[in-house]
Amino acid sequence: MLLPPLSRRLRRRILRVSQGRRQQEKHDRLHIIDMIISVSMIKTLTAIKARQNLGEVLEEVYYNGDQYIIERAGKPMAALVPLWQIQVREKHKAQLFGMLDKVWKSAPPVKPAIVEREVAEAVRAVRTKSHRKKA
Q: First CA to last CA across the chain, in angstroms?
């Protein structure tokens, strides 16, 4: 079976991806981890059953990547997730705060009164826009 020729746009995209592969590797790994997190199944467990079968539940979390929501009286109270998910979350949080620090340092200092005035103007503009749509 012959495949149709690739479009110019697709060829450029493939070339770009192959050239920037090293830079994209970290980004790709994060996307793979995000996919794994979203695909893994979340199970619910009562607090009593969690206490009775803690060893088994821990092994399922560690080896299978299962996630559990522990409930008491039908109310979700806690979650049991693999440690690597917490580590990835903390790494993402550190990256986010690092980016925020860079933005904060690069932005010129602004007086709080100016910020409050601009926020109030933006809120007022949004509210008048929403009121016009309702009318």
A: 60
Strand partners, 70: 45, 78
> Could you tell me if 72 and 49 are in contact, meaning their C-beta atoms sit under 8 angstroms apart?
no
Predicted pLDDT at 133 = 63
Secondary structure (H, E, C), the chain = CCCCCCCHHHHHHHHHHHHCHHHHHHHHHHHHHHHHHHHCCEEEEEHHHHHHCHHHHHHHHHHHCCEEEEEECCEEEEEECCHHHHHHHHHHHHHHHHHHHHHHHHCCCCCHHHHHHHHHHHHHHHHHHHHHHHC
Task: Encode pLDDT of 10-41 as tens digits.
Answer: 556 666 655 555 555 666 566 555 555 555 67
Is the distance from CB of 78 to CB of 53 less than 8 angstroms?
no
Q: What are phi and psi of 74, to 5 degrees?
A: 80, 0
The answer to whether residues 46 and 69 touch, using CB atoms and an 8 Å cutoff, is no
Q: Residues 34-65: pLDDT tens digits? A: 555 555 678 999 999 999 999 999 999 888 88
